[in-house]
């Protein structure tokens, strides 16, 4: 048996005391304590302060710096000071020992001062015509993002050491080093000489590397680091600790007694969930684990005795609906009478959507109409419409707010999910304005009016999951 690589998310990190006593220590003796590598996210809210608020878009340090906001009390420097205050508050909340708090506060002071000096120097450098700030914003974003995970990993290491654990702070953020390493090289260099069977590495979720993780993954970088670390070190399992179980549906929609834990599923299902924005894991991270033949386990961090849900490549033993979920989208429709028999329309639309960074969830087409179901803001879609109108001036382009309910399973063959789903939706007094099922038999999508999503999910779950009363296998 080898080690596991385990990831703790930001909201769970805010309860690190609970995790220390249950998930990490949990009454284990010295022989049982090690063989685990923990990858940690920043404490809750810190990354929002460093970059921008993930939901509201309120500027953090990065956004204010990129906009050139130097206003006293509201500019990027003032926001950086607020980050320092939030980090020190976390130190006081997490660490009970005065010496540990003082050490953590010194760590924060060093990182904040270093970042402030770097950003000021960059601004001065870019005041000369030969250097442009826009060419350095990606590096600036990575520098700031990495500070959150470095802080939480350092504080967690201090907490665990005070509890008698041989914890080791592993900083992948590239702070004040020469750089020049790809992700694999960064991880291997940082772990050199560390034996996880006799000590416990606490690893930053952000890793500075030549690939520039944020350029492709933005704030999903920690799962990429986590998966590559598990693959490179040959982990027995990769484990993600969340604040909930992977369930057959949102218990708040279908009832806590009706929803049940999956227990076991595969990477096909994980990919479908990612496509709907309900990520068990980032799809690129899942691909890394899948290719390395490392199974993924998703657990509830605060139920450490429950094995959670195991995700691997094993097919289902029998056909069954596993999850009913969905999300609110927009339908972007282009109608062009001259489209019949002419190639190139679809490629041109895809090019425009990619240029505006619009995420496509699904699409349908017929002889003269192409409809993309997309996850984007109305503001961005107006720009897309303008570009399409210039390209195809005789076309009719419309955008409609809709929702998509999706029924997912490793194997849906023989279950008549499309027919039974439409019947369930109609039986609930709702109307599906579209539906589709692919030949792979892993998901069926129902297009609904925007406000009908939640009752549609409840109706589909009742008909396809609860009525089947299918037993769910417990994770191995």
Q: Which short descriptors sum up this protein?
A:
about 475 residues, alpha/beta, Carbamate kinase, VC0802-like, 8-stranded mixed beta sheet, 6-stranded antiparallel beta sheet, 18 helices, globular, disordered C terminus
Explain this structure.
This protein is an alpha/beta fold and 476 residues long. It has two domains: 4-243, Acetylglutamate kinase-like (Carbamate kinase, 3-Layer(aba) Sandwich), CATH 3.40.1160; 323-466, VC0802-like (2-Layer Sandwich), CATH 3.30.2130.10. Helices cover 42% and strands 18% of the residues. It is built from 18 helices and 14 strands. The chain has helices spanning 10-13, 16-25, 30-33, 46-50, 61-66, 76-94, 98-125, 137-162, 183-191, 213-217, 221-232, 251-254, 267-275, 283-291, 345-355, 378-391, 417-427, 453-466; strands at residues 4-8, 36-40, 167-170, 200-204, 237-242, 264-266, 296-300, 309-312, 323-335, 359-365, 369-375, 396-408, 434-437, 443-449. The strands form two sheets. The protein has an eight-stranded mixed β-sheet, with helices on both faces. Helix 9 packs across helix 11, helix 11 (221-232) packs parallel to helix 14 and helix 17 packs across helix 18 (453-466). It is globular and about 70 Å long. The model is unreliable at 470-476 (pLDDT under 50).
């Amino acid at each position: 048996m080898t080690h596991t690589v385990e990831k703790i998310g930001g909201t769970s990190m805010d309860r690190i005391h609970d995790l220390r006593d249950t998930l990490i220590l949990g009454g284990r003796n010295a022989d049982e304590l090690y063989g685990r590598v923990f990858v940690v996210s920043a404490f809750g809210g810190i990354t929002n302060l460093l970059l921008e608020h993930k939901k509201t878009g309120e500027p953090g340090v990065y956004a204010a710096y990129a906009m050139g906001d130097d206003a006293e009390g509201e500019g990027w420097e003032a926001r950086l000071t607020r980050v320092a205050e939030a980090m020190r508050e976390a130190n006081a909340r997490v660490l009970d020992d005065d010496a540990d708090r003082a050490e953590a506060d010194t760590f924060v002071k060093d990182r904040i001062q270093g970042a402030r000096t770097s950003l000021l120097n960059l601004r001065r450098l870019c005041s000369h015509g030969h250097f442009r700030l826009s060419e350095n914003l990606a590096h600036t974003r990575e520098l700031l993002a990495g500070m959150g995970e470095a802080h939480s990993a350092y504080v967690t290491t201090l907490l665990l050491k005070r509890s008698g654990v041989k914890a080791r702070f592993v900083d992948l953020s590239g702070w004040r080093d020469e750089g020049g390493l790809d992700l694999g090289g960064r991880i291997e260099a940082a772990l050199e000489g560390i034996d996880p069977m006799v000590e416990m590495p606490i690893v930053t979720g952000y890793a500075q590397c030549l690939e520039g993780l944020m350029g492709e993954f933005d704030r999903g970088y920690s799962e990429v680091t986590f998966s590559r670390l598990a693959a490179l070190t040959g982990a027995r399992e990769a484990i993600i600790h969340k604040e909930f179980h992977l369930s057959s549906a949102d218990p708040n929609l279908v009832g806590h007694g009706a929803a049940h834990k999956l227990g076991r599923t595969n990477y096909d299902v994980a990919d479908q969930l990612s496509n709907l924005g309900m990520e068990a894991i980032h799809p690129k991270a899942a691909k890394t684990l899948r290719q390395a033949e490392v199974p993924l386990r998703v657990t509830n961090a605060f139920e450490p005795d429950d094995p959670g849900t195991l995700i691997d490549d094993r097919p289902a033993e029998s056909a069954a609906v596993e999850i009913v979920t969905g999300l609110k989208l927009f339908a972007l429709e282009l109608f062009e009478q001259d489209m019949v028999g002419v190639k190139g329309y679809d490629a041109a639309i895809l090019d425009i959507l990619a240029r505006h960074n619009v995420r496509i969830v699904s699409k349908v087409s017929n002889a003269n109409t192409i409809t993309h179901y997309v996850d984007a803001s109305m503001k961005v879609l107006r720009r897309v419409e303008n570009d399409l109108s210039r390209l195809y001036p005789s076309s009719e382009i419309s955008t409609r707010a809709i929702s998509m309910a999706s029924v997912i399973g490793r194997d849906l063959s023989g279950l008549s999910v499309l027919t039974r789903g439409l019947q369930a939706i109609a039986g609930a007094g709702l109307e599906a304005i579209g539906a589709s099922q692919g030949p792979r038999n892993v998901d069926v999508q129902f297009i609904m009016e925007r406000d009908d999503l939640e009752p549609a999910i409840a109706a589909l779950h009742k008909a396809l999951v609860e009525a089947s009363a299918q037993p769910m296998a417990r994770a191995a």
